[in-house]
Amino acid sequence: MARDVGKAEGVWRARLVRFQDSGLTVRAFCQREGVSVSNFHAWKRRLGIGKKTPSSRRGTPGRLGAEPLFVPVNLNPGVLALDVRIALPGGAVVHVPLHADERVLALVIEAAARIGREGSAC
User: Fold this and answer.
1) Are residues 56 and 48 in contact, defined by beta-carbon separation less than 8 angstroms?
2) Does position 46 have pLDDT exceeding 90, yes or no?
3) DSSP for 39-93?
4) pTM for the structure as a whole
């Protein structure tokens, strides 16, 4: 039985990654996958995906099993920097003011990554 639960967990983790990359609504995605919306939300809750607590953001910022979204960066105080340049996979580059709010920064990076994946420009 434990094996089946582990297998189901793996299936749902993969499914939730596909959902995040799909751009579909939950209802449309569930219809495409042949699963119920209530089951979708139950597994999302069970796996702790989408929680708004700081600890849940560390290893899974929109991508299950992905590297951390933010990593510590040490800036040399002797070097005058007005912004930070972040190069994302797919070629998107984000220039962020040093005083940017973390929520705004996360939204900008998410949008830039999406644009980089889709290959379209703003």
Assistant:
1) yes
2) no
3) HHHHHHHHTTTT--SHHHHTT-SSSTTPPPS----PPPTTS--SEEEEEPTTS-E
4) 0.41
